Amino acid sequence: MAGLELLSDQGYRLDGRKATEVRKVQARMGVFAQADGSAYLEQGNTKALAVVYGPHEMRGSRSRTLHDRAVINCQYSMATFSTAERKRRPHGDRKSTEMSLHLKQTFEAAVMTQLYPRSQIDIYVKILQSDGGNYSVCVNAATLAVIDAGIPMRDYVCACTVGFVDETPLADLCYAEESGGVSSLALALLPRGGQIALLQMDARLHQDHLEALIEAAMIACKGVSKVLDEVVRQHLQEVSMLTAE
Amino acid sequence: MIRTEKILHLKNNRGRRLRVVREHYLREEVPCYSSVCQAGCPNGGKVLPGDLTHYVVPDVGVGVDYLEILEFQEMQGIIFTQTVCQAVQHSKGRRQYNRLRNLLKDPRHDCVLFSNEFQEYSYCPREKGESQEEWQTRCVYSAAVWYHNHLAGLMDIVMITQDQDTVTEYSSLNSGVYVVSVQDYLKNFWPDLQGAHELYASISLALQVKESEGKEEEYRDHLPAEVLDAGIKSGRYIQGTLNVSKHRAQTEAFVMLEGFSNKSSDIGWCVLVHGDKARNRAVHGDIVVVELLPKSEWKGKVTALTEGQGEEKSGEDERKPMATGRVVGVQQRNWRDYVVTVPPREGPQAQSRNFQRILTVPWDHRIPKIRISTQQADTLQDHRVVVRIDSWETSSLYPNGHTVRVLGRAGELDTEVQTIVVENSISVPPFSDAQLREMPLNSAENPWTVDPAQVEARLDIRQSHLVFSIDPKGCEDVDDTLSVRCLADGKLFELGVHIADVTHFVKEGSLTDLEARSRATTYYLADRRYDMLPAVLSSDLCSLLGGVDRYAMSVIWELDAHTLAVNKVWYGRTIIRSSYQLHYELAQALLNGEQVPVPELAQVSPEQKDSRLAELTQALETLTFIARHLRAQRDRGGALELEGVEVRAKLDEQKNITALVPRQPLEVHETVAECMIYANHWVARKIQETFPHQALLRRHPPPRQEFFSQLVESAKARGFNIDTTTNKTLADSLERAVDPEDSLVNRLLRMMTTQAMSEALYFSTGALTVPEFYHYGLALDCYTHFTSPIRRYADMVVHRLLTAAIAEEKALSKMLASNKEVEQMSQHINKKNRAAKRAQKLSTELFQCLFFKDRDPQSDPHCMADGIIYSIRDDGVLVFVPEYGIKAPVYLKNREGQVVMVQQDGSCERTSGTIRRHRDHISTTSACGTSTFRLFDHITVRISVSSSHCHADRIHLEIISNKPYQSSQPAQPHTEARCQLVREVVRLAEEAHQQAQQKEARRSKFSREEREFCQSKTPNLYSLLEEVRELALMDLEMVGQVCATTA
């Protein structure tokens, strides 16, 4: 479809960013007292709340218990007011089930589950406002929540979406870009080792371009990880000051 | 950190009751693209010069409505703001926006785009209750102020607007930033730019008129785009390109469907749109959406020939009905510049206002009349004017337009040629100084020499190879040379094709390159040509002249002497010195063993001469041998006769030339052509292998079988069977379809075959699948153009690809154009080629008309000629006149209902009667009997010119007798007669030559044009006309005037 020009000749995107720039990330940890860990993260206009319970004993069907590591249970949901049109979003629809599954896979790769055999870790994520890149925002928020809960991880898991427009990879797509028919790719990365926790793409893309796209996604993820790291350090400082008093 | 400094802003836009919140990032460093920038902006690419008095910032209204004025190259230092660009995109659509974008990209034009809305200090958020226009103006103004401050006051900024309120509101706010109206701006800063002033007046008048338009509805509204899209998807509507019928422009138009996915048996491949109302303001070339009418309202296509416009045929609609529809919407307007004629006024019209609205008649029949408003209605009378269409409201019967420039008085030669040029959207301004400055120097005092560094880098074959060129006599731009030699005791042949290395001189992205790209080809008109490259390259430094060192791109094959299998191919850059600059006749004479003087050997001693002559002849013989073999190879694959494909349209016109000039197709023509095809083919293979996604190739898609029906039926009338299943069977059956009585039959059949052919096209290999690369006419699996870089841009692209392929560095391939760009470029070149071909055809027709215009059809013997019927229509026949290469209709029934009857002695008369059309003949019946005209009958016709004021003149044929014209002998002794004629022509030409030196000068100029024209290796109609004119010089003084005007 014609219409929006996603990348202008001058190299600006719709919202004024350049191709490699990530949206502004703001985050807070420890927003709820009841939960073991919690975090709130804004990436541009996409806002997510992540809550972690556990590790604790298996609840529900005990048959799922794993004797050598913890079970990670993820649940993803969107608020009814998260998009421009108010819409009831029942639990367990296909989209959110898929998203939950992806989150689960991501965190199984990152959390050191073997330290907690026969236990369970619950991660709940809610999108409060959606403006593209829901998956990556969820992952980033959940990472902070898991850290807040004090559960050991191999590394931060940072995620980012990239799209491919005019032979150029665009980092961290917003909703207007995502809906403009761009083939996008979501990547979750353990930045220090450069290991990929999850890579997901369901659009058509020429094989030749894949490498460049992954490269761009990795760079973007590393950028996000720096921000997350800063947030964590600042949070720790605050907490330690409080406890010192 | 990869993030830059940015502040989050929210922008609300309301639409469909949605509240969409979007982020908006601002930054400090947005490049200003000015060379006087003090802050060190990262200005890449185009930069505004610093030596101007001011920069101009147009506001939204100016950008939207007056963009054309800003397109003048004289206007410098224009800063388009992002706000303006977006407004243009939204309010004017993609076409206008693309124009603006191209303007910004064009390095010849001094304008830049400033992303003001992403600049922290020039951005102003829209305030509550502020209208869109106010906000946009404020944005543009704040951008102008930013510029002034950013450049530290070194440059004055002028913001131009159309809104008086803006002028009063902003003009005194800031010193150094001036706000003026467009009119004042033009008056104060560009008082000399007359064109801009006129354009401004014409646009503003057109805008005024638009506002004061009445409200009665003449047409239905177009449906909104969403409805159209949905309708197309659901199959309710059909999308296609509107093609107005040339002969019945008032009523008939066809919509050519795109794609055949929804092809159902009763729709076929085009939909008829009948009448003005159904066409609903669509103009020829627009992409429209049609809705099919119910079957009961379907109409038939009128196949009768109509004499003149506006004639109503009633009762003709009974013909087999075809799918008929009406236009419900226009997807994309394809309006271009139109040439119109301002008709003479009938009586003074009282006009209260100081401007007048006049209806002008476009030169192209297919375009509706255009209403323009002008203050110079009187001076424009009878002139041809370039006009652009602005709009076509539902309330108006005709579209509104404005004038762009005046071409000249109608009927003058120069005006007419310019008309042809404009009508084909060809733009050929003279080369600018900046472009010429890029050219290497070569003058008598400062001759160009070979660069030693280049000698190092290139293969030097100046000594080792005998290189020669074969071209039409006296050719100036030699772009191909050949070499051939025996290796290893005659077991191997080494064949070399050396092509002028144009890309060495023309660097990619240079001004000359951009100009060449936009021209895409050299345009050959009948009396002039427009070069693609400046003369210093095309006829000097790139031309592979004899006896001088030149750079070349070479393909050298090592062939087995017996099987001619290729052992080795070498591609590369070379340095050559052509030893002989032969012409076709000379080469053929050498091959035939005749004793002819070779100019290059004139100074050489006799014994040396013999040996060198033997060497040359030997080379030519080997070459001929190889070429025959290659040709046979292709023939086995099913190649059609070359002329039958590529330049066929020219050839039918040349037929008559062979009838006057004995430029028999010599074998050596074919030899050279074959070597070139071979070179092209191998280069295509190489670049396709190296760059599977971005090579520029040329394909020739197989024709649609339904196009062959006329050919097959016509052939059947003569008892020939044409098998069109593959190109092989077609070539074979055409070979067989020879009438021993009449050699013209075979030519006509080949002509029809050519008409059925699809067009050969350039394309990018990434855009199509490999089987689609096939070249139908040449029967090759891949083909490209490599051998004429001086006159075709495609060849230059291929040269660059080949250079990159040889270098075989992946780094280089990154810099090459991507698939998308190559595809865009090939489409551009295809378009330009089509335009060039059409312009050439039109100019030939123009000269045909000029030739006959001043003759009295009743008395002049030139106006009587032999014609052959090649197609039957309802009320007449189509006739081909081989002597002049004219194809035109002959009406057997005129408007009064009288039909042509053949008398006893063969002469024809008109009486009242009826007419009946059959499959292969047409017969007229009246009180005194029946006469029949069959396909391929020879008849005598009288040629006259029906002149038209607003359109091009047309050749008119009238049937005189159903016997062949007496002067043309029967087919067999034709050749002798021809030779006689030729001798006479030559004699007369020589006499004329002696007569006056002046005339000589003129003649040589003509023959030069002709030689250039012969670059396509085919003689053309132009030389015929020249010959005929020379004959005429002796008889009639009148023709001399024609000559004088053409000279």
Helix and strand arrangement:
The complex is a heterodimer of chains A (245) and B (1047).
Chain A: E1 25-29, E2 37-43, E3 46-57, E4 71-78, H1 94-110, E5 119-129, H2 134-149, E6 158-165, E7 168-171, H3 175-178, E8 183-190, E9 195-200, H4 207-244
Parallel strand pairs in A: 4-5
Antiparallel strand pairs in A: 1-2, 2-3, 3-5, 6-7, 6-8, 8-9
Helix pairs in contact in A: 1-2
Chain B: E1 9-15, E2 18-24, E3 54-58, H1 60-65, H2 67-70, E4 78-81, H3 82-105, E5 111-114, H4 132-150, E6 156-161, H5 164-170, E7 177-181, H6 182-189, H7 194-211, H8 225-234, E8 237-244, E9 252-257, E10 270-274, H9 275-279, E11 287-292, E12 299-300, E13 321-322, E14 324-332, E15 337-341, E16 356-362, E17 370-374, H10 377-380, E18 383-391, E19 400-409, H11 413-423, H12 433-437, H13 452-457, E20 459-460, E21 467-471, E22 480-487, E23 492-500, H14 502-505, H15 511-519, E24 523-524, E25 529-530, H16 535-541, E26 549-560, E27 566-577, E28 580-583, H17 584-591, H18 606-637, H19 648-660, H20 667-690, E29 696-699, H21 709-717, H22 727-736, H23 743-756, E30 761-764, H24 793-807, H25 810-815, H26 819-853, E31 864-872, E32 876-881, E33 886-891, E34 898-902, E35 908-917, E36 921-926, E37 929-934, E38 938-946, E39 954-961, H27 974-995, H28 997-1013, H29 1021-1035, H30 1037-1046
Parallel strand pairs in B: 3-6, 4-5, 6-7, 10-14, 17-19, 20-27, 21-28
Antiparallel strand pairs in B: 1-2, 8-9, 8-11, 9-10, 11-14, 12-13, 15-16, 15-18, 16-17, 18-19, 21-22, 22-23, 23-26, 24-25, 26-27, 29-30, 31-32, 31-38, 32-33, 34-35, 35-36, 36-37, 38-39
Would you write up a description of this structure?
The complex is a heterodimer of chains A (245) and B (1047). Chain A has helices at residues 94-110, 134-149, 175-178, 207-244, and strands at 25-29, 37-43, 46-57, 71-78, 119-129, 158-165, 168-171, 183-190, 195-200. Chain A has 245 residues and is of the alpha+beta class. In chain A, helix 1 packs across helix 2 (134-149). The termini of chain A are far apart. The model of chain A has no long low-confidence stretch (mean pLDDT 90). With 1047 residues, chain B is of the alpha+beta class. Chain B has five domains: 27-181, Rossmann fold, CATH 3.40.50.1010; 225-304 and 321-332, OB fold (Dihydrolipoamide Acetyltransferase, E2P) (Beta Barrel); 433-601 and 608-643, no CATH class; 667-851, no CATH class; 855-961, OB fold (Dihydrolipoamide Acetyltransferase, E2P), CATH 2.40.50.140. In chain B, helix 18 (606-637) crosses helix 20, helix 19 packs parallel to helix 29 and helix 21 (709-717) packs antiparallel against helix 23. Chain B is globular, with a radius of gyration of 32 Å. Chains A and B meet through helix 4 of A and strand 2 and helix 3 of B.
